[in-house]
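As a warm-up, study this chain.
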Amino acid sequence: MGVIGSAASRYTDPMTSSSSTLRVALPVPLPHLFDYAPPPGPAPDPAMTGQRVRVPFGSRELVGVVAGIGQVEDPASLRAAIEWIDTTPLLTGELWRSLHWLARYTHAPLGEVISTALPGPLRRGEAVPDTHRWGWQLTDAGRDPQPRLRSGTRPQRLAECLAGGVVDEDRLDTLMDDWRSAARSLAKRGLVERIALAHAPAVASPASGPAPNAEQAEAIAAITAADGFAAYLLDGVTGSGKTEVYLQAIVACLARGKQALVLVPEIGLTPQTLSRFRNRLGIPVHVLHSGLNDNERARVWAAAARGEAQVIVGTRSAVFTPLPNAGLIVIDEEHDGSYKQQDGIRYHARDFALVRAKALDVAVVLGSATPSLESLHNAQAGRYTHLRLKQRAGAARPPVVRVLDVRKRPLRDGLSPEVLAGITQHLQAGHQVLVFKNRRGYAPVLLCHDCGWTAPCQRCDAPMTVHAGGRRLQCHHCGARQSAPLACPDCGSLALQPQGIGTERLEEHLVEAFPDFPVIRIDRGTTGKRDALETQLASLGDRAGILVGTQILAKGHDLPKLTLVVVVGIDEGLFSADFRASEKLAQQLIQVAGRAGRAVDAGEVWLQTHHPGHPLLETLVNGGYHAFAEAELQQREAAGFPPFAHLALLRAEAQQVEHANAMLSAVRALIPDDAAVERYGPMPAPMPRRAGYQRTQLLLSSPARRPLHGVLDQVTPQISALPQARRVRWSLDVDPMDLY
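Now compare it with the structure written out below.
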């Protein structure tokens, strides 16, 4: 991985005598490379592949990456590149080849794939950043013994942390929440300063952890014995100690002088994971997620590229981290849907991580308590080594699951009398309770009780969700907001009532019902700010109290005082048209149930439902997740759905539905009749109108991957040339996670 040298001077002469041209990948939605005459400097050479170059494009200037060197008969007819940005290639080796693979697999322009993979500053043509380690220390003024900081405040706590000398930023991450805002405040007053620390390769000094049980020891031995590429499905029940397996595998990786990349599905998991990893591994652990600013992300990317970052923990986009000295890749909660990018380049981080691991010739571990059906199928087919952890680690026992039939039962804001009594019992015993409802807001619908009117979104085929106790309406699909009307727009009635239950309404009721205990709501509305989730959970600590939340709380959090989980309103997930709905619901129920009883105290899980005899619930309660997965795989095979079929979804959006249908009909006509690919559509999307656009789709399906990609290879380059394509917004999603 090269570093940036000084850029060449701006090019002014459009003529060149060389017949060699630069073939440049640009971040534009066109499926080809662009030829440019080279800027002043060395003659074009294949060794320049992977270097960034600034070029004119229409009336703009863009930053592209040289993808090859070509020859033309008349180089004077080409526009000339403006300047080199790099003196050596920015992208080389495995990562360069893997990005080409991703462009081919997703049938996306190489320039857009590269743009997706690079941090913002590098996309904009900035230099690869300095990767000094940084620390903070008190200034002379800050060492003045005269008290000037209010006791108990963050600035005062930070000053105490720095009283013993310089503390590096990684260490501060483990000592304080939100220390950066306190540091900025103190720096403005001249009391602290940031200094560069001499870089020295960190030598891991791992702390001892708990002794692994027999199942963990077997998994650790298998992973650490891998010589070259091997894929492991670490299939362990919640609380079985999968993270301990990861840690010991990473320790072995570091002992060989190699790098480890750990992917986690949500930003909210990174603080807890980081703290545990840093304490155990004894070296700096670098983090990559969307909560960081562009410069922070670029520094971690550069540190990894230079081999300085030995352990990187990050969310989906961290899969593009350069790993010149790779030793291990871990994908935690591998089933999670957030690993799939749903706009732009629609890649799946788990699947791309597998491709990279094979190219890097290293082991990859996919961990989950509820593995995706695709991963289970691959394990059954022998493509993955299946490692099972069937017992909870330590003294923890599986929670007791109880299905509550709420038919004909009085419900207060969605909660039955039995649930309220159970919550009281657990709180009085000093424990914590999680009330789970996967719908944020106050209520799903605002309804006129007299005429039946419901508040619609004017831009989507969906009702607006009620927020702020009934005072505000918000569309969760396009983001539109408005005040709730005082009277029904149709009949003038004042009988407007929120219908259904969201997390805000549950919070309101529980605060009223349990005034002596803290009630903390965890959903997208309360965790938008940096470190908000960690701060919210820390505010509860070990006190008896209630957490009300969405699926954010179902993932990976270790809450030792939590002994009761109440799942409210699962019925809507039992009857969805989405072929993955049953899998998603089963995973969600198992994951949220796994939050209960993870320490010494036994846990309980109560499921409220109007359909206690539903086959999915009966299978999960009586047979567990694997019994459900086996039955679901049989149904998928009979129906011809993934993993027994391979799908590609073409979506088209236009303000007139006729334009969207015409475009997809033209695409369908491009597919040969003898192609071994089934075509469904054009047909309306499950939500036909969204954000003011009419949406239609064409679904392609094949029992084998090769015929499907053969058709896409043939058709995709022709789509941009279709006259119908100029009137619509369209996208291609290979291996779609849902059909919406």
